[in-house]
Amino acid sequence: MYQTFLFDLDGTLIDSLADITASVNVVRAHHGLEALSAEHVRGAVGDGLLQLLNRTLPEGSDVDAARAVYWDHHREHLLDHTRLYPGVAEGLQQLRGKAAVGVVTNKPQAFSQQILAGLGIAHLVDVVVGGDTAAGRKPDPAPVRAALEQVSAPPWSALMVGDSAGDLRAGRAAGTATCAVAWGFRELATLHALSPDHEAWQFEEVVALAAWRDRRALSLYALLGEETFWRLARAFYGQVDRDPRLRAMFPQDLTAPIEHQARFLVQFFGGPSEYSRQRGHPRLRMRHAPFAITRAASEAWLENMVAAMAEVGIPEPAAGVMRRYFAHTAAFLVNREG
Q1: Do 132 and 9 sit in the same domain of this protein?
Q2: How many CB atoms are located within 10 Å of the residue 24 CB?
Q3: What sign results for the dihedral spanned by CA atoms 110, 112, 113, 118?
Q4: CA of 309: how far to CAs of 122, 141, 144, 319, in Å?
Q5: pLDDT on residue 200
Q6: Do the Cβ atoms of 240 and 304 come closer than 8 Å?
Q7: Are residues 96 and 206 in the same domain?
Q8: pLDDT grade, residue 336 (50/70/90)?
Q9: Cβ distance 298 to 334 under 8 Å?
Q10: Which of 96, 138, 184, 262 is deepest in the core (most CB within 10 A)?
Q11: Which one of 188, 211, 234 terminates a domain?
Q12: What is the DSSP letter of 314?
């Protein structure tokens, strides 16, 4: 069962082609060029605004200046013709309470939130990650991972839904399952080469995947068992206790940190949510920790965690999945230069 649904915005939840085309043509008029048809613009969207402008302006154009013209117009015309695709509002309402819902888009965050509010579905979305945030843009997997972190969801419980190659590549690289939709800006046949896990011809088919049980793999919690994560937490803090690079960051008595670490790992890798029940919403990004974490300290943290995994004897391929997760997490621990 997918517990988290991450959606692209343009071409997946909303049909915004007319408003995008209008803004592109304002830019072209600014350059003394004739207007393009919506079908021409359709073939240029899907990889972010810079690529859209590169594809709709002559080679050598000042794309940075064109981008400013585009956004000056677009911010005032976000909802002139933009509409939800059929079934989206009803489908998101059905997912409410069954799954976390996020939007991962290359459109700026504020504009995306304005559109969701204007179309009456903002209250059905738990997280929005826009293309102007620190997470970056698809097809980089970082914005997908950022959305997962904000809803405390492991990637194997999530489905990335979109209409472009960038959506599917970002989801796949982040470790989620993927679903290609047939109603967006791209022909579904053009996405077959990317081997999406699912295809949907109408939004109701996406919603039905909330009850679809992925038989490809169990969660790591189911594969390894709860005691493995307790052993890992004890081994990790055993490493920390002997490491002068990290020891001063933690209290003398490591009993509580071991318990918190174990419960967090159990929850994140697919087990019961005791961590959240006891400590509230987990902060996967610890930049606000009450002590300084430099890049050297984060590297020491990762080194000790990998050593603890080896001590516990976590087998492959589970060990590889966990190493990738811990390496990604280490980068977000840093809250101080040095």
Answers
A1: yes
A2: 27
A3: positive
A4: 41, 25, 26, 7
A5: 93
A6: yes
A7: yes
A8: low
A9: yes
A10: 138
A11: 211
A12: P
